[in-house]
Structures are given as structure tokens and as C-alpha cells.
Write a sequence for this structure.
């Protein structure tokens, strides 16, 4: 079974530290890569981890704060130097295109690939991207500027053929596709062979939600309910709840409450304030509410 993985390239907040770069993640599903946010240093982390990006065609930017997009022009420039030819799709607030266009003219003229912008309405929950294997939905978040998270949903896989049964019933090759899609088989004598005798069920589709930056908001719960993995910012601890409210961020406890109410399977926290040298304090605060919480760390790969 092909695993879905999340690589955290940076899980710090606006002030980088020697431990955490600003926000950026690489999600891999069905042999494709999707970059989520592109803070300063994203391409450095990629180099440090030896990541290949030939399968990365889409970048999703949650909002226009620098710690989520300052690394974008550098990454694009590097793609140019590496002679990339495949189109690069960027999904973001429409103002990002205006910002990047000027930078492209100065620093990235003559690229061998096209950059295609797709405007997102961050205040609306809707389908923003779809291919044969994945759907991506926006998640309206509560922050100081228009911000959205992203819900990645793997499309259902086809059922697995039991080769011995196909051979036993002498099923022609041209019928196999329909059987993988769930159809029964009718023999020449009119006998109906039920699909579950010919196939086994596929793996359940994976669902991953990314929610950063945001204040505590129960409005997201119906959207992320039951996801396999939730990445949610936990910028502050509960003793800084007034600061969290002022800056429209979440505490670790609030984040865990969202995970618990949404009945998610696993929570990864991140986007830590630089004030916390011991991030295990954030982890302990979250685990007191939601036990299956993981401390997000730079240059770490997680199974979704």
C-alpha cells in the first residue's frame, strides 16, 4: 500500500529560530507532491533533506503574511536554474499574483515553465483543486488577514482484483475494469458472481487538514471532522491566551479542543512562538486534552 506522508519543512512562526524555520510542508499522496505554504528557507530545508520536487506541480498559500510566502520567489528562481519545464500552479489569495509578478519580472525572466495562478476566496469553503486522485477544499480561518486552511481528500481507490477468481471464472480482460469499479460478473449461464467474491476492498481514502494561522474557531469542526491527520497551529500556551486573542492565534489547549471535538485521528501541532525554548510544554498542554497529539518538528516526515 502506498503511504501518504507529510514532511514538515518549517513549523515556526513569524520569527525564525535556529530550530524552526517559518511555515512550509510537503504533502505526498498517490505519488504526487503538494507544497503547503512557502516560508523563508523552504528550499534550504528541501536541500538539507535531499528532497526531489519533480512531482510537485501545485503550491497552496494560506495567506499573505511573510512567514508563509517569503520563500516563494526564491523557490521559483531555483526551479528556473534547474531547468524546470513543467507548469507550476499557485493557489492563493488573488493579491499574491500582483506581488509575485513584479518579482518575476526582476528576478525570473525567461523561465522555461509557466506559472499559473488560481485565485482562492479564503472566506468560502469550496473545492479549489481536483485531479484524478485528490480533491482540495479551502477552510475559512479566523486571522488578522484573509486566511484559509486546506483539506486534502484522497479519492476512493478501485477494488483489488483476486487473480485466482478471475482465472477461475475465465473473466475476459475487457470486463476487469468494471469489476474493479464494483460491478458483479454474469457468466454465460446467467449465474451472478458477486463482486466481493472477485475483489477485496481498497484502502480507505486518506484525509489531511492544514489549519494555520487561526484563532480558535469551532466553525471549522464540520469541515475537518474525522480526518486522519490534522495539522493545527499552537502558537501560544494557555497563560498567553490574551496575546493569542489579540494576534488571532490559538493556544495549544484550544488546538487540542478543536481536535477532540472534531474527532480527528491524529493531531500535529506547530507554528510555535519563538518565546518557547521548550516546546514540550506546548505538547503537554495539548495532550492533557487530546492524547494523540504529536509535536511538529522541522525536517520530519509523518505518515498521514
Amino acid at each position: 500500500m502506498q503511504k501518504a506522508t507529510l514532511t514538515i519543512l518549517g513549523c515556526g512562526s513569524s520569527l525564525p529560530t535556529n530550530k524552526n524555520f517559518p511555515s512550509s510542508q510537503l504533502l505526498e499522496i498517490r505519488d504526487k507532491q503538494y507544497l503547503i505554504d512557502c516560508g523563508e528557507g523552504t528550499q534550504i530545508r528541501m536541500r538539507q533533506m535531499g528532497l526531489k520536487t519533480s512531482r510537485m506541480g501545485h503550491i497552496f498559500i494560506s495567506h499573505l503574511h511573510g512567514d508563509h510566502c517569503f520563500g516563494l520567489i526564491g523557490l521559483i528562481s531555483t526551479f528556473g536554474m534547474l531547468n524546470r519545464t513543467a507548469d507550476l500552479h499557485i493557489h492563493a489569495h488573488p493579491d499574491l499574483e500582483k506581488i509575485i509578478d513584479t518579482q518575476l519580472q526582476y528576478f525570473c525572466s525567461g523561465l522555461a515553465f509557466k506559472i499559473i495562478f488560481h485565485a482562492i476566496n479564503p472566506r468560502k469553503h469550496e473545492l479549489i483543486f481536483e485531479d484524478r486522485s485528490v480533491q482540495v477544499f479551502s477552510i475559512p480561518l479566523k486571522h488578522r488577514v484573509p486566511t484559509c486552511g486546506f483539506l486534502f481528500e484522497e479519492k476512493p481507490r478501485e477494488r483489488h482484483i483476486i487473480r485466482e477468481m478471475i482465472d477461475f471464472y475465465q473473466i475476459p480482460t475487457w470486463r476487469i475494469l468494471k469489476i474493479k469499479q464494483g460491478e458483479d460478473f454474469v457468466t454465460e449461464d446467467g449465474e451472478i458472481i458477486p463482486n466481493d467474491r472477485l475483489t477485496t476492498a481498497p484502502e480507505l481514502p486518506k484525509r489531511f487538514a492544514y489549519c494555520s494561522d487561526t484563532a480558535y474557531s469551532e466553525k471549522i469542526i464540520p469541515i475537518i471532522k474525522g480526518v486522519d491527520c490534522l495539522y493545527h497551529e499552537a502558537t501560544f500556551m494557555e497563560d498567553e491566551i490574551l496575546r493569542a486573542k489579540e494576534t488571532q492565534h490559538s493556544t495549544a489547549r484550544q488546538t487540542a479542543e478543536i481536535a477532540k471535538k472534531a474527532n480527528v485521528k491524529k493531531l500535529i501541532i506547530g507554528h510555535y512562538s519563538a518565546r518557547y525554548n521548550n516546546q514540550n510544554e506546548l505538547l503537554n498542554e495539548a495532550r492533557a486534552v487530546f492524547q494523540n497529539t504529536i509535536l511538529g518538528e522541522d525536517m520530519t516526515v509523518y505518515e498521514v
Remarks:
- Residues 160-200 form one domain.
- The mean pLDDT is 95.
